[in-house]
Specification:
The structure is a single chain. The chain is mainly alpha-helical. It is built from 11 helices and no strands.
């Protein structure tokens, strides 16, 4: 939800008076939820903190009148309640251990600890992170009898979709594992470790599909001669230049499609 709200805010970088009053109330709500000794919803989750902080940064730049006086930037997030980790030997660990694949446990969690080598299960920080992520998965309610069947269906469907353009669907256990990962990243940040490079796979600004750009192009080559070999030897090709495609005064909406077209045409020229 905070990611979606951040996306809405980024869409209004040009000052919108109708947004300012709403934004003022929203920022006050964020402070009440995540900051101060009376925070109602404190969290370690690094992505949540990122979107909250980014919303305040944007408001400070474009809507300074909406920023509550109590907001001190950078924000000082309140620590969340302790999460019960599941270290080795804890019986409940076995119930959720299968949710953590080898790649996630080794590579994804491992990148939180620059001094750890791959597959080093003796690293104290990695051991702590593994126990905490499994504790988060367990606390969120993952149990084999509740999720095994549906996760098997998700995995089977994902394997059939490998050759299609459909979006990827992750298992519940993996989603819960990501929550644990970002929770651990936030805890490490509170201890003074530089924040992890966030992996954001959804654009919260919900960009609209680009509008088609009508660019009239002349024929680059005639259709004759019809014989391929003769055309290869004697055909005429007049490659259009970039300045002839995008001329001054032409009303175009500049964006990735137009820039990409210009780059390709320029490379051909």
């Amino acid at each position: 939800m905070v990611a979606a709200c951040y996306g809405v805010a980024t869409a209004h970088q040009l000052h919108a008076p109708e947004l300012e009053a709403t934004l003022r109330a929203y920022l006050a709500g964020l402070l009440n939820a995540f900051n101060g000794p009376e925070a109602t919803h404190p969290t370690f989750h690094a992505l949540t903190r990122y979107y909250v902080s980014s919303t305040f940064d944007l408001a400070h730049r474009y809507y300074p009148a909406a920023v509550p006086p109590a907001a001190e930037l950078p924000l000082n997030f309140t620590a969340a309640p302790a999460i019960t980790p599941l270290p080795e030997g804890e019986p409940r660990r076995e119930d959720v251990l299968r949710t953590m694949g080898m790649d996630f446990g080794n590579y994804t969690l491992g990148r939180l600890f620059p001094d750890r080598r791959n597959y080093d299960d003796s690293h104290p920080g990695h051991q702590e992170a593994t126990a905490l992520v499994l504790g988060v998965v367990h606390e969120l309610g993952w149990r084999p009898d509740l999720f095994d069947e549906v996760e098997h269906r998700i995995t089977s469907a994902a394997s059939r979709q490998q050759h299609t353009s459909g979006g990827r669907i992750d298992r519940y256990g993996k989603k819960y594992g990501w929550i644990g990962f970002h929770t651990m990243a936030g805890m490490l940040a509170d201890r003074g470790q530089p924040p992890e490079d966030l992996e954001v796979d959804i654009d919260p600004s919900f960009p609209q599909p680009p509008q088609p750009v009508l660019v009239p192009l002349d024929a680059w080559t005639p259709r004759t001669p019809a014989d391929d070999l003769e055309w290869l030897r004697h055909g005429t090709v007049n490659v259009v230049l970039a300045e002839n495609v995008i001329r001054p005064g032409r009303r175009l909406v500049w964006g990735p499609a137009v820039v990409g077209l210009a780059a390709r045409v320029g490379a051909l020229a």
